[in-house]
Amino acid sequence: MQDSGTMKSFLLKTSVAALLGMAGVAYSYKNDFEQSAQHYSKAIELSPKMADAHSGLAFVLYRLGKYGLAMQHLTQAEELGAKVNPDLREALQHQIK
After folding, report:
1. By C-alpha distance, which of 29, 30, 85 is closest to 52?
2. Which of 74, 72, 97, 76 is nearest to 87 (CA)?
3. Is 63:30 a contact under the CB 8 Å cutoff?
4. Is 61 exposed, middle or buried (0-12, 13-18, 19+ CB in 10 A)?
5. Which residues of the chain have pLDDT under 50?
6. What are the φ and ψ backbone dihedral angles of 67, each rounded to 5 degrees?
7. Shortest CA distance to 52 belongs to which of 20, 27, 30?
8. How confident is the model at residue 1, as a pLDDT?
9. How confident is the model at residue 2, as a pLDDT?
């Protein structure tokens, strides 16, 4: 069983990761893909199993032309249980060939 300090630290990291993920979404809507990628990456650093952050990062990396890295994050998102956009997967596969 975790002590209360460890649990508080975990909850804080998870909350900050969720906020960073939301910021990633917001920057993506503004077409600021560099900022979006930075926020998603920070969210993943804090919470590596955050499937939605991997999925969002895959999309913005695709928009930035970083296709191989985008595919890695898309695959990671899928492995973590996220529903991935089949059109994005197809577009990445087309670019990677």
Report:
1. 85
2. 74
3. no
4. buried
5. 1
6. -65, -45
7. 20
8. 47
9. 58
Instruction: List the structure tokens of 94.
Output: 């087309």
Report the 10 Å Cβ neighbour count for 48. 12
Three-class secondary structure of residue 31 per DSSP: coil
DSSP 48: T
Tokens 């994005």 correspond to: 88
How is residue 21 written in tokens? 């993920």
Residue with tokens 């596969």: 93
Tokens of 7: 């649990």
Contact present, 78 and 84 (Cβ < 8 Å): yes
Cβ contact 5:35 at 8 Å: no
